[in-house]
Amino acid sequence: MPTVVIADDSPVLRRIVSSVLEREGFTVVAAEDGVQAVQAVFATMPDAVVLDVQMPRVSGRTTGARWTSRSCS
Q: Which of 1, 55, 58, 65 has the fewest C-beta atoms lying within 10 Å of its C-beta?
């Protein structure tokens, strides 16, 4: 079953997106900010990531840059 990490600071949006993806057969890992998103990506090595660009603590842009730079080194 494919895995998707969903990173969004809105609990409502996380629930909606999670619900739709789970109904379609995806395993969903939810994160409420960029820090949790980076941890989830390295812990699960997902097939896809749904990333909110404006999140507290660490923005979505910084989050994406963190895992791409780590996975390329």
A: 1
How many residues are recorded in the chain? Answer: 73
pTM, two decimals, is 0.81
pLDDT single digits (tens) 27-37: 999 999 888 88
CB 3 within 8 Å of CB 27 = yes
Query: Over 39-70, what HEC string results?
Result: HHHHHHCCCEEEECCCCCCCCHHHHHHHHHHH
Q: How far apart are CA 51 and CA 31, in angstroms?
A: 9
Classify 52 as helix, strand or coil: coil
Residue 32: phi and psi, rounded to 5, are: -95, -5
